[in-house]
Design goal:
The protein is of the alpha/beta class. It has 14 helices and 13 strands.
Length: about 375
């Protein structure tokens, strides 16, 4: 495991000067390691690190017994407490001048409020993502890209480079999400069926998600499967991309596409690559939103004739660019040729795993067929 800071660390340190810091993200993405870096590369035995899962720490948290000599306090997994927001609000209001508070959790901290007074205006929320190519290697080679595609962007399996460790890590992580996180945060009895759903989701990546098909396969109600997918999304196991509605092309408006935070779970190479690109774009959107306050959206474009562009990135509701994913070097896709002159999207990228790079124009729009490595570096993605 390397010791360099994560991409968001300078922004976290700056935000921590004025408000509390909430740090969310999937299990084992590196939140605790990052939080301990804020304490000065400390260990979990540091007095300022309080984990709700540790009984001794839990007592101190409930009593607001914070170490007086420590400027920064880390509260890990505290969202598992039903009234955590009231508790943290009280700490901040009474001790905020003495301590800077960092709250971390492997769930959407903006969703798991569990009642209580609002913390509006008291914190900055950041989401930590898996490693992208630029963060993994400043001068990425094809070997680096292959490692990222194979092992995913989570630190432990990626930096181990071991297939055995990757397989064991993947099984253990999925099991802990289902048997610990779901159990602690949700009132769901059919835990075994959620395990089956987790096994089904990788084969649904990249296509419009049919809850009806999942309902039939699991033999449960529509409300149940809808809620379970919501739970997995709130626990940073998967995320959904809604369609981009634009006049003049009869675009679909409701069907969402599903992707996983760990793209290494996907067997089919084309969909695995597409998921990695989706994760990179979501990281880009979250980064700009969390650090600069822009309203960012990740969408896809599909019309009723099933012509489709994989992704469209919106900033303040205006399209910045679109991305089409291809594993091999190809000519401009038919979907780009169709949508370029018919939509307000200014730039289209067709990213691939080959080496050729060329540009063109269609309907006055810039079209760029570009290797993924070159595209990621040129875009200066985090």
């Amino acid at each position: 495991m390397r010791a360099e800071p994560r991409y968001s660390e300078p922004f976290l340190r700056e935000d921590l000067k004025t408000k509390m810091l909430f740090l969310g993200g999937p299990r084992q993405v590196g939140k605790t390691t990052l939080a301990l870096r804020l304490l000065g590369n400390a260990s979990k035995n540091h007095p300022a690190y309080l984990n709700w899962d540790f009984p001794a720490s839990r007592k101190k948290i409930l009593a607001a017994d914070l170490p007086a000599a420590e400027r920064i306090i880390v509260l890990d997994e505290i969202h598992k407490f039903k009234r955590w927001r009231n508790l943290v609000k009280g700490m901040y209001d009474q001790l905020g001048e003495q301590h800077s508070i960092v709250v971390t959790g492997s769930a959407r901290l903006d969703y798991y409020r569990r009642g209580g007074d609002s913390l509006q205006g008291r914190y900055h929320y950041h989401r930590l993502h898996p490693f992208s190519l630029n963060e993994f290697s400043r001068d990425a080679s094809r070997k680096d890209l292959d490692l990222l595609l194979k092992f995913g962007g989570f630190p432990e399996p990626l930096f181990s480079g071991s297939e055995t460790k990757w397989r064991r890590w993947q099984l253990e992580r999925t099991s802990r999400v289902i048997n610990e996180d779901v159990r602690d945060l949700e009132n769901i009895r059919e835990i075994s069926l959620m395990g089956l759903l987790a096994d089904m989701l990788p084969s649904r990546v990249g296509a419009p998600l049919s809850l009806q098909a999942l309902r039939n396969d699991l033999e449960v109600s529509h409300d149940s499967v809808r809620r379970w997918v919501d739970v997995f999304e709130n626990l940073y196991f998967c995320f959904r991309v809604p369609p981009y509605g634009v006049s003049g092309v009869k675009a679909v408006k409701k069907e969402q596409k599903l992707y996983l935070w760990d793209w290494s779970m996907i067997e089919q190479p084309g969909f695995r690559f597409e998921n990695m690109v989706a994760s990179q774009l979501l990281k880009y959107c979250h980064f700009l939103q969390d650090t600069d306050g822009f309203r960012m959206e990740l969408r896809y474009l599909r019309n009723v004739d099933e012509k489709e562009i994989d992704f469209v990135v919106l900033k303040e509701k205006k399209p910045l660019f679109a991305v089409e994913c291809k594993t091999g070097e190809r000519n401009i896709s038919g979907a780009i040729s169709y949508f370029a002159p018919r939509t307000p999207i200014p730039v289209f990228y067709q990213v691939h795993l080959g080496e050729k790079h060329r540009t063109a124009k269609i309907g006055g729009k810039k079209i760029e067929i570009v290797p993924f490595q070159r595209w990621a570096k040129a875009m200066k993605f985090p």
